Amino acid sequence: MKPIRQSVKFDKKFLDKDALKVVNTIHKAGFEVYLVGGCVRDLLLGLEPKDFDVATNAKPEQVHKLFKRSRLIGRRFRLVHVMFSARKFIEVATFRSGQVQTAKSGVIVRDNCYGNLEDDVVRRDFNINALYYDIHKHEVIDYVGGLKDLEAKEIHIIGEAKLRFSEDPVRMIRAVRFGEKLGAKLSDEVKDCILDQASLLSNISPARLYEECIKLFHNEYGFGVYEQLEKYGLLKHLFKQTHKNDFIKKALLNTSARIKQNKPVTPVFLFAVFLWQAQNERFVIIKKKQR
Predict the structure, then answer these.
(1) Helix, strand, coil percent content, the chain, rounded in steps of 5
(2) Is 87 exposed, middle or buried (0-12, 13-18, 19+ CB in 10 A)?
(3) Fold of 1-151
(4) What one-character DSSP code corresponds to residue 13?
(5) Cβ neighbours for 55, distance < 8 A, ≥ 6 positions apart
(6) Is 125 among the residues known to form the active site?
(7) What SS3 class is residue 70?
(8) ∠ CA(193), CA(271), CA(288), 5° rounding?
(9) Which of 16, 42, 53, 149 is catalytic?
(10) In 60, 94, 208, 291, which residue has its Cα 20 to 30 A from 23's Cα atom?
């Protein structure tokens, strides 16, 4: 693959100082290293990234040795978290080769075979998230047409959608979230496969789905995400007892408004709202039985 290299010099006020420290430390140690994924995408769109991720050819153990305040995490996907405070860390991932171990369901259970930059690109989910930024050359590196998709406001998956969603069904709800966040259109292949494979979400652990649900709804476009999850048949695999009503709409719009105003929000509130109608219906049934 021959990449497109686009010269871009981002405003320093949008670049996280701690992320730059991590990149510079790994670079000085002689390794290849880039900012990658959502942070590059958002910077190109003029948005302020919430998280900065780093990709490198250094092995996790090598990265760990470079930073006193770091920890190795993950079995399925080995990573390093470089800690800067109790709540802040920069995530560093080693380039993956694409040689993965899967369960009978097709879900990836281990992805710790390392490779080079070109290998790593095709292991990422969507074209718009497979952009790498070289902070020293001030270049965005694009192997898969992510720059073109950003301009067209389209979301295309890397590789065959059916296979990629089987490997990690969470990609389906990520596609919906990115579509709402960026005002982008899902490709026909992505839409068709989500409608066909939504039930695969049942293969994902509750702990991981909990984390993804927070990302789905703790933002400024939560109700739009909710409607799209319902449209594509994904919602029933996240909240089986939940059906759209005015209470849910008001709660999600209220949560988005609070986030815009930098007010605190809690997932417990939204989960209670999602289950409120089902709880009331159950209460009525129990009350009738007691008569």
Answers:
(1) 50, 15, 35
(2) exposed
(3) Beta Polymerase; domain 2 (3.30.460)
(4) G
(5) 33, 34, 36, 37, 92, 93, 94, 95, 117, 120, 132
(6) yes
(7) strand
(8) 105
(9) 53
(10) 208
Catalytic (active site) residue 51: yes
**Residue 262 backbone class (left: φ over 0; alpha: ψ -120 to 50; beta: rest):** left
Q: Please, are residues 170 and 155 in contact by the beta-carbon 8 Å criterion? A: no
- Per-residue pLDDT tens, the chain, 291 aa: give them: 789 999 999 988 899 999 999 999 999 999 999 999 999 999 999 998 989 999 999 999 999 999 999 999 987 788 999 999 988 999 999 999 866 555 556 565 555 678 899 999 999 999 999 999 999 999 999 999 999 999 999 999 999 999 999 999 999 999 999 999 999 999 999 999 999 999 999 889 999 999 999 999 999 999 999 999 999 999 999 998 888 889 999 999 999 999 999 999 999 999 999 998 878 777 777 877 776
Is there a contact between 250 and 216 (Cβ–Cβ < 8 Å)? Answer: no
3-state SS, residue 177? helix
Paired strand residues for 55: 34, 93
CA 244 – CA 208 distance, rounded (Å):
24
Half-sphere exposure of 114 (CA within 13 A, CB side): 12
Structure-token match 């769109």, residue found: 45
**Domain 153-291 maps to which CATH number in 1.10.3090.10, 1.10.3720.10, 3.20.20.450, 1.20.120.80?**
1.10.3090.10
Among candidate residues 16, 42, 120, 125, the one labeled active-site is 125
Tell me how long the chain is: 291
Question: Distance between terminal CA atoms of the chain?
Answer: 72
